[in-house]
Amino acid sequence: MSEETPGRAPEGAPQAESAPVSSPGPGSSSGHSSGPRPGGRPGGPGGRPSGGPGGRGKFFRRKKVCKFCTEKIDAIPYRDVRLLQGFVAERGKIVPRRLTGVCTTHQRRLTRAIKQARNIALLPFATRH
Questions:
Q1: pLDDT greater than 90 at residue 114
Q2: Hey, is 75 helix, strand or coil?
Q3: Measured in whole angstroms, how far is the alpha carbon of residue 2 from the centre of its chain?
Q4: What pLDDT sits at residue 25?
Q5: Angle at CA 68, nearest 5°, toward 67 and 70?
Q6: 3-state class (DSSP) for residue 108
Q7: How many CB atoms sit inside 10 A of residue 93's CB?
Q8: How far apart (Å, rounded) are the C-alpha atoms in residues 119 and 126?
Q9: CA distances from 98 to 15, 23, 87, 101, 126 (A)
Q10: What is the per-residue pLDDT for 60?
């Protein structure tokens, strides 16, 4: 048989913490909660450092400019399927303006044009998946 040192777990076996386990106080409904976290959200304010994924410091995000304003396109034609497909996701959803960078007025016109194109079957409502 294998020789084990008293008080130590064998190699490969999980080691238990020797800290005392406290039971939840009265009034606490779940036994695994240690109270509210500061900030009210998981992770709290002491989470990842700001600056993007990985915390590589300051990350400069370029301001998105409206494609329609820069090209001075006033009316968005519902028949221009190639233009509209750039603002529709793969599954058929209209991409929000925070992702495309389109201004509010042009996003409204774009949404209306996409919906018109869907109604006359130029664009699909959804893809089969």
A1: yes
A2: coil
A3: 51
A4: 53
A5: 65
A6: helix
A7: 11
A8: 12
A9: 48, 46, 12, 6, 22
A10: 74
Phi, psi of 84 (to 5 degrees): -70, -30
CB 114 within 8 A of CB 123: yes
pLDDT of the residue at 43? 56
| Domain architecture of the chain: domains with CATH | 76-129 (4.10.640.10)
Model confidence over 34-90: pLDDT tens digits? Answer: 666 666 556 555 555 555 556 666 777 777 889 899 999 889 999 999 999 999 999
Neighbours of 4 (CB within 10 A): 11
Are 120 and 88 in contact by the 8 Å Cβ rule? The answer is no
Which two three-digit tokens encode residue 99?
A: 């992702």
Question: Can you give the pTM of this predicted structure?
Answer: 0.54
Provide the 8-state DSSP code for 94. Answer: B
Say if CB 68 and CB 97 are below 8 A apart. Answer: no
